[in-house]
Amino acid sequence: MSGEFVSGLLTMGHLVAALFFCKFWQRTRDELFAAFAIAFTLFAAEQALLALAQGTREEQTWYYLLRLCGFVLIIVGIAMKNRRAPGRSHQPASKLRVLPTGRTRRRW
């Protein structure tokens, strides 16, 4: 009983994180946020399937491949973000505000 409760909590936590990253992706259109949103959705699906399978060992099932795909997606997203040209930003100039110190700050 408590294992199912914890699996439900983990599934919900992963889905909440996915929704936050999806919201950030909608605002910035940054591929890294999209990669994180999809990865956390995969983590939630894996956890939910494990809870529904009852009695199967996590390391002996194909459900583990969902987690693996999620982590690979995160690594690819980070690599894509780091390969982007240093001076190039996806944030439109209208969303940036110059601070008195000369630095810029994003408006949400």
Describe the structure.
The chain is mainly alpha-helical and 108 residues long. The chain has one domain (2-106). 65% of the residues lie in helices and 6% in strands. It has three helices and two strands. The chain has helices at 2-28, 31-53, 64-83; strands at residues 96-98, 104-106. It has a two-stranded antiparallel ribbon with strand order 1-2. Helix 1 packs antiparallel against helix 2 (31-53) and helix 2 (31-53) packs antiparallel against helix 3 (64-83). The protein is elongated and about 60 Å long. The model has no long low-confidence stretch (mean pLDDT 83).
The coarse overall form would be elongated
- Total domain units: 1
How many helices does DSSP assign?
3
Please write the string of helix (H) and strand (E) elements. Answer: HHHEE
Identify low-pLDDT runs: none
The biggest beta sheet is recorded as: 2 strands, antiparallel
Give the CA-CA distance, first to last residue. 42 Å
- Helical amount: 55-70%
Radius of gyration: 18 Å
Q: How many E-type strands?
A: 2
Q: What structural class do helix, strand and pairing data support?
A: mainly alpha
Widest sheet, order of strands: 1-2
